[in-house]
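# nightly structure sweep
# worker-07 picked up a monomer target from the shared queue
# config: single-sequence mode, recycle default, output format = structure tokens
# input follows
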Amino acid sequence: MTDLRAGLLGVGMMGRHHARVLREMDGVELVAIADPAGDPHGVAGDCPVLPDVEALIESNIDMAIVAVPTQYHEAAALKLATGGVHTLVEKPIAHSVEAGTRMVEAFKTAGLVGAVGHIERFNAALQEMRRRIAEGQLGKIYQITTRRQGPFPGRIADVGVGKDLASHDVDLTSWVAQSPYRSVYSQAAFQSGRTHEDMLLITGELENGVIVNHIVNWLSPMKERITVVTGERGTFVADTGTGDLTYYANGTVPTEWDAVAAFRGVSEGDVIRYAFPKREPLRVEHEAFRDTILGKSTTAVTMEEGLRTLKVVEKALSSAKGNAGDL
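# output follows
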């Protein structure tokens, strides 16, 4: 079978990784790169470096990856849809719900695969967690909390920490729990003098009754990527930075040593860190997009799903300004 001809729009800090993965994939040939700033990381190789998305479309590509700043997602995606190109845009889907809605409609009307790069879904730790939760290992799920914090990324200037970081946690939480959000409330801070928020605390509830909490910020020297799921039989802790998944089981053996019990807790049981294959999430994401185009899979994150995530994030940001949080 002929390889899918791929184009890449944007070869900045994230785009350079897309270029590497596209070159290494079976069934895909990277044929062109477009970036008005040229090729700052030297990843083009034998590919021509084109000036814009129009030139990329003229390269007769079948699929495209859009890795430009969020404010440019809509314009690029709409042109790719008109050009008949299956497209994956980096998260968030767009700078606004209105823009994301136009993108969803364009790809639906054109009968093309439109996907969003919510890469955490393809992290091995979260995939293993979701599988075990679905099999009932935790029993009833009570709560999902996430912590995503670290230093400010200098490359991001067009959105705040909500759309850049919280969009990851909103998407993965809904996906892991297999339930959409019912409500969100939040508080935001602007500590660094920038236009957009750099700290955000979100609390909410999913439609299945699970309560959620997200801590996100760009002001911590400590980088964290943690998801904690607590249920009736214990707790899962996924570290998507390392790909590790640890299970803390509720205890069944009472602690008779009172001094130790005071430190250990009253219901501590076995602690297991699971061993499982850990593949690069970006590679798995690309394979899902490729296979969805070929009709072999439906695991790519759709633009409809990306739009739902953006709606939750925008509601959280609105809540931080004092507006109601029901979705």
